[in-house]
Specification:
This protein is an alpha+beta fold and about 400 residues long. It folds into 2 domains: about 1-50 and about 60-140; about 250-400, Histidine kinase-like ATPase, C-terminal domain (Heat Shock Protein 90). Helices cover about 55% and strands about 20% of the residues. It has 9 helices and 12 strands. The protein has helices at about 1-50, 90-100, 135-210, 215-245, 255-265, 270-275, 295-310, 340-345, 365-375; strands at about 65-75, 80-85, 110, 115-125, 125-135, 255, 280-285, 290, 315-325, 325-335, 380-385, 390-400. Strand 3 (about 110) and strand 4 (about 115-125) form a beta hairpin. Helix 1 (about 1-50) packs antiparallel against helix 3, helix 5 (about 255-265) packs across helix 7 and helix 7 (about 295-310) packs antiparallel against helix 9 (about 365-375). It is elongated, with a radius of gyration of 43 Å.
């Protein structure tokens, strides 16, 4: 699919480029030819007005092309000729040219076979005709067409190469999203496959009979545990889908972020106490942001839940909220095993877990991905830093 998309992009790009080149070169050729013809006719008009003898300086600033002037009486006979360039001694050839001109009803035109442009005027005594040479005009147009073809081919090849590069650059986000989607489906299938296998196995064992009541209770307990795990995973997937869908269920309003953070910390204090951890906070008052209270609280819940899972035993988790210019900065820091640079790059990816063993402890690797989606929807930033035995997650939001 990605290859077809690249090919389609290149084809569309080249069709547009080709059309633009044809329009540009066609316009240049048309106006150049029209300009040359206009200059030639202007010169012929000047010669005709002065009866073949232009005054000195009359043609200055105009195209001075080879020409000759003839005057034909009412009987079709030559009565006067003038030329500064042509040899008019061949009267038969000259008479043939005049006959072709007089047979043309138009006052001006082109004799293609002779390579001449003519302009005639009726006088009381007959016809006055000026002929201008077109060889220079034809040579100029021929050279221009040749140059346009060369430039067009070179431009086409250059744009073709550029289109390949642009296609690779333009399709890269699509390719990345496609690969992420495939990986997401694969990971989700894998995460659902394990609990389903456990549930089916225990259900089959229950059907077989012959097991002690204690064993049957273990089978039921395993089924319930895996069912709860699957429900948690499905709920996380649905929440992630809602965030990816643009957060249509988010209701934004101006809210007191300081109070929201303080209230969100309270339910976690007994949880931390049971795990032998201490939860401390330093929350600046009067910080207001514009956003969804439900979802911003969900982000803090995710960070506090992760901190409780990965904090070192008997350690203290520190949560701070302060202003930072036109933004506010929330941080959740916990002592623990440092996160590698590679993990810091991937930690917000879906189904990515630093500790793979956490998969059976209601940790699906989706929490941080959900948090990142929510924060981006609030025009904020979320990132993690690790150093000195402290892992810190930061959330930056614009102040209301």
């Amino acid at each position: 699919m990605i290859k077809r998309l690249k090919l389609k992009f290149i084809c569309i790009n080249m069709v547009i480029v080709t059309a633009m080149l044809l329009v540009i070169f066609g316009t240049v050729l048309h106006f150049t030819q029209a300009n040359l013809a206009q200059q030639s006719e202007r010169m012929m008009q000047s010669v005709l007005e002065n009866r073949g003898h232009p005054r000195p300086g009359e043609l200055s600033g105009q195209a001075q092309l080879p020409y000759f002037y003839v005057s034909v009486n009412s009987f079709g006979e030559l009565s006067a000729t003038f030329s500064g360039y042509y040899d008019l001694t061949d009267t038969d050839a000259l008479q043939e040219i005049i006959s072709l001109t007089l047979s043309d009803p138009a006052q001006s035109g082109v004799l293609k076979d002779c390579g001449l442009r003519f302009l005639k005027r009726t006088t009381p005594f007959g016809q006055s005709i000026v002929f201008a040479d077109m060889s220079s005009e034809l040579a100029t147009m021929g050279s221009l067409v040749k140059n346009c073809v060369i430039i067009g081919i070179a431009s086409f090849i250059a744009f073709l190469g550029l289109s390949f590069l642009l296609a690779r650059w333009a399709v890269k986000p699509v390719e990345s999203a496609w690969n992420q989607q495939r990986q997401f489906v694969s990971d989700a299938s894998h995460e659902l496959k394990t609990p389903l296998t456990v549930i089916l196995t225990n259900a089959e064992l229950l059907q077989q009979g012959g097991y002690a009541e204690e064993d049957r209770e273990k089978f039921v307990s395993s089924i319930l545990t895996m069912s709860h795990q699957m429900r948690g995973l499905v709920e996380s997937l649905l929440e992630l889908a809602r965030v990816d869908n643009g957060g249509q269920n988010m209701v934004f309003s101006r809210l007191n972020y300081s109070e929201l953070v303080t209230d969100a910390l309270l339910p976690f204090e007994p949880v931390y106490f049971e795990k032998g951890l201490l939860l401390e906070s330093e929350v600046a008052e009067g910080i207001f942001v514009k956003g969804s209270a439900q979802h911003l609280k969900q982000v803090l819940d995710i960070l506090l839940d992760n901190a409780s899972k990965y904090a070192a035993p008997d350690s203290t988790v520190q949560v701070t909220l302060r202003t930072q210019g036109t933004h506010c900065l929330l941080s959740a820091a916990n002592p623990g095993e440092e996160i590698s640079k590679e993990d810091l790059k991937n930690i917000f990816k879906r189904f990515y877990r630093v500790d793979k063993a956490r998969s059976m402890n209601h940790s699906y690797g989706l929490g941080l991905a959900i948090a990142e989606g929510i924060i981006h929807r609030h025009n904020g930033k979320i990132w993690a830093e690790s150093g000195g035995g402290i892992n810190t997650f930061f959330v930056q939001l614009p102040l209301a």
